Amino acid sequence: MAGALHPRNLAGADTVTILEQLKRDEGRRTRPYQDSNGIWTVGYGHNLTVGALSEAAISQILADDLLAADTACRTLPVFSGLSPARQGVLLNMVFNLGLAGFRTFERFYAALESADYEQAARDMLDSDWASQVGARATRLALQMRTDAWV
């Protein structure tokens, strides 16, 4: 958006005008795609194969992804009854696994429904996910068990 840029001219061009031109000419894509030259691109013609993402872009992507995980977690009936630290465990897991992947943790979810957080922590660690993410699973299981941020 025009407001996101500093209100100065870029290379002598009017910022608002050049942004509108680029939006018109590049087109907006919310998902990566290969352009006519086979280059992976996203957004308004952003080349994903050249250069690095800025810290601001990385932080915005993280914030957007966390918001998506939060929205997904709020569809889980048990979520609103959990403490903030335990909600954090679910947010972290849904961020990592997606809601569909999280839903495969049936025993874990049943333990949450019965407020058996010790069993929920054991179920977290007794999973393929735990062997894949290692220390992350150990930390989150401790957070689930103790109800304290780790």
Structure description:
- The chain has 150 residues and is mainly alpha-helical.
- The protein has two domains: 2-47, no CATH class; 55-146, Lysozyme (Orthogonal Bundle), CATH 1.10.530.40.
- Helix content is 57%, strand content 8%.
- The chain contains seven helices and three strands.
- Strands 1-2-3 form a three-stranded antiparallel β-sheet, with no helix packed on it.
- Strand 1 (29-34) and strand 2 (40-43) form a beta hairpin.
- The longest helix has 19 residues, at 55-73.
- The radius of gyration is 21 Å and the shape is elongated.
- The two termini are 37 Å apart.
- The mean pLDDT is 92.
Number of strands: 3
The biggest beta sheet is recorded as: 3 strands, antiparallel
Compute the gyration radius: what is it? 21 Å
How far apart lie the N and C ends?
Answer: 37 Å
Task: Determine the mean pLDDT.
Answer: 92
Please indicate the percent range of residues in DSSP E strands (runs of 2 or more).
5-15%
What's the CATH architecture name of the largest domain?
Orthogonal Bundle
Runs with pLDDT <50, length 5+?
none
- Main-sheet strand order equals 1-2-3
Class by alpha and beta content: mainly alpha
The CATH topology of the largest domain is what? Lysozyme
String of helices and strands: HEEEHHHHHH
Share of helix, binned: 55-70%
* Apparent shape: elongated
SS summary, helix count: 7
CATH class categorisation of the largest domain: Mainly Alpha
* The number of domains: 2
Entry summary:
The chain is mostly helical and 150 residues long.
Features:
three-stranded antiparallel sheet; 8% strand; 7 helices; 150 residues; 57% helix; mainly alpha; Lysozyme
